[in-house]
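QA checklist item 7 of 12: single-chain prediction sanity check.
[x] sequence parsed
[x] length recorded as 189
[x] structure emitted
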Amino acid sequence: MLMQSAKPLAELENASEFIARHIGISPSDEAMMLKTVGSCSRRDLIEGIVPRSIARSVAMDLPAPLTEAAALAELKAIASKNKQLTSHIGQGYYGTHTPGVILRNILENPAWYTAYTPYQAEISQGRMEALVNFQTMVFDLTAMPIANASMLDEATAAAEGMTLAKRSVKKARAIPSSSRATATHRPLK
């Protein structure tokens, strides 16, 4: 059996995959919502809400939509122009290597930071699920009876800890360690 010639990558990519992962309403839902608010179309609704003084007179001149891969490539090209002006190394922030599998499946995966439900259009649910997965992995790897994954950065966690200590012992004076980074010390003052 002869092997077929390899297809170009662009032919293998599912360009509409990104759109399908996002929640949207059906045409019947849209019609019902418009009827409820007394409009016959989205255009009619917008014209009834947006004041003429700020409404666009001509349509926006937008570029053609991109695939997810093309959009990420464009964003990476833009981000590569950034310059690091302040180094936080030694101030509680350290250079690390993020394995590609974590980068692709957690940090760059839109499923972690898009809305799971129409009423939760924010990153918190995906972030919380990622932390639970991390916590579970630490629990499994260490065989400890309990594991924790804080949603707080170092400075906020220090301030929360200090607040808890102050509330627990009313008359105690809390003195933070002088070895802490400047960014961690500021919220404690």
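[x] summary fact logged: The mean pLDDT is 77.
[ ] second reviewer sign-off
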